[in-house]
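A common beginner's mistake is to predict each chain separately and then try to dock the pieces by hand. The better habit, illustrated here, is to supply every component at once so that their relative placement is modeled jointly.
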Amino acid sequence: MNKIILGRYIPGASFVHRLDPRSKLILSFFFIVVIFFANNVQSYLLLGVFTLFCVYLSKISLAFFIKGVRPLIWLILFTVVLQIFFTRGGQVYWQFGPFSVTHFGLVNGGFVFCRFVLIIFMSTLLTLTTAPLEIASALEALMLPLKKFKVPVYEISLMISIALRFVPTLMDETEKIMNAQRSRGVNFGEGSLIKQLKAVVPLLIPLFVGAFNRAEDLATAMEARGYRGGEGRTKYRVHFWKRRDTLSCVLFGLLTLLLLFLRNW
Amino acid sequence: MSIHFKNVNYIYQQATPFEQQALFDISLTIPSGSYTAIIGHTGSGKSTLLQHLNGLLKPTSGQITIEKQIITPTTKNKALSSLRKQVGIVFQFPEAQLFEETVLKDIAFGPKNFGSSEQEATQLARQMAHLVNLPEELLEKSPFELSGGQMRRVAIAGILAMEPQVLVLDEPTAGLDPRGRAEIMEIFQALRIKQHLTIILVTHQMDDVARYANHVIVLEKGRLLASGTPTEIFSDPDWLRTHHLALPQATRFASALQKKSGFEFSKMPLTEEELANQLVQQLGKRG
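With all components supplied together, the output reads:
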C-alpha cells in the first residue's frame, strides 16, 4: 500500500516548492509535449540533464523519483520490448518469424524507455512538490476560461479536490480492513486466481460501504456549514505569479529552442 | 498461551524516506490466562504491538514467542496462518469488517476460512451470536441493517467463532453507550472465566483496567515504560501524571481525599467497591 510514490507530497521550501502551482502544472504538461520532439541521443541527453537539474532544485532525494518509476516498470519494459521486436530498419541482429531485433529497434526501445522515465520523473516532481489541493486549485484556475462554454468548472474542481483529499484516507481504510480480514483467515494474493478474486469481496464491500457513509457525512457537514457552490465564493488559497514563475517559463522556452536545434543537427 | 517479546524493534517502511520506528527494543511477557491491559497514548505503539501478536507484522529485529511458535524477521508468512486462528484480534471499530449477506454468514466467515465445514461454522455462529446477546431474529438480516452497537457485537462474535485461545481487544467499547460498554466488558470477563482465555485489552478507560485486568503494560513513544499489576501501576499518582496517564475514578477520588482531609489509604483503592470498603472502615474508626 505504501509503495506508491506518485501522488505523494513532501513538504519543503525549495525553488520548485515555491513555484506557483499553475506554472508547475502548465510546465509539466508542456514538458511532456516537448519530450516528443526529441529524436536523437543528444536531445534525450539534454532533456535528461534538464530533468536532473529540476530534481536537484527540488532538494528531494533522487531515490524518491526512482521509486516512482518502480510501479510502472513492467508497463515500460513491455512497451520497450514491443518497440525492439517490431521496429524494422538498419542492421538485423536476430530474426525469428515476424520478430526481429534491428539496430533501429534497439535505439527506439532505448528512446521509449528514456521518454517514459523522464515523463514519470517530471510528473513525480510535480506531485512531490505540490500539495494535492494546490494542484486542484491550480486546475480550477486554469479551467476557468472554460466557464464561458458552460463547463461546470467549480463542480469539477470540487470533485477533484475531494477525490485527492480522500486517497490517503481510503488507503488507510483499505489497510485496516485487510488486516481485519487477514485476522479472520483471508489470505490476500495467495492461491488460484478464483481464490484471489474471492478474497477481494470481503475487502471491497466494507470499503464501498465506508466510502458511501463518508460521502454522506461530508455532504451533511458541508451543507451544515452553508456550502452553496462556487458562485461568489472567495478563496483561501490565492495564487500569485512571481518572478521565479516567469523565470521558469523562460527556462523551458530556451530548453525548447535548444531541443529544436539539436533535433535537426 | 503465553507470549514473550524479546528485544523487538519495528520500523515502518524501512529504507524509504518515510521510514519510522514504532517499537524500540520491547521485551515483555504476557502470561497464559492473564487479563493484560496495554495502556499508552495515541502513537505509543499499541496498535503496532497488537499486529505482532498474530503475525500481521513481523518484527524488524528481535523475536516473539507465542506458546511454541517463534516469530523472527525471516519467518515465512505461510507459517503464520495457523497463528491467526489461535490469536483472535478484535480491531478498533470492528464493525467496518462486516460484509456478508446475513449476520449468521458473517460470523461463520472466520471458522470457514480456518477449515470448519459449513455446518460446523453455522452452528458455531449461532452459539456465538447467543453468547454476545444478539436476538435470534437478527441472524438472517443483513448486518448493514443493524444498529451500531449490534454491528459491533456481530463483529466480536465473528472473532469469537474462530475459537481463539488468546483474545486481543483494541478499544472494544469505543463509541458505545455506557450500558453497551458494561455489557460487552462483562461478556469478555465471563468468557475468560469459562474458557480460560488469555485476554489482551488496549484501552484508554482506566476504570476498565482497574476492574478487569490483572497485568498492565504501559507504553510510551514505542518503548516499554512499565509493567506490573494494576495496584502497582496505579499506586503512584504523581508518576502517572508526569506521563500524562489518567487514574481510575475511584483512585482519583481517594488521592484527592487524602490531600484535602485526614483520610489515609495504605493501599490505593482501584474500584468503587474497594473505595467504599476502605472509607467505611476508616469512618468506623473515627466513630
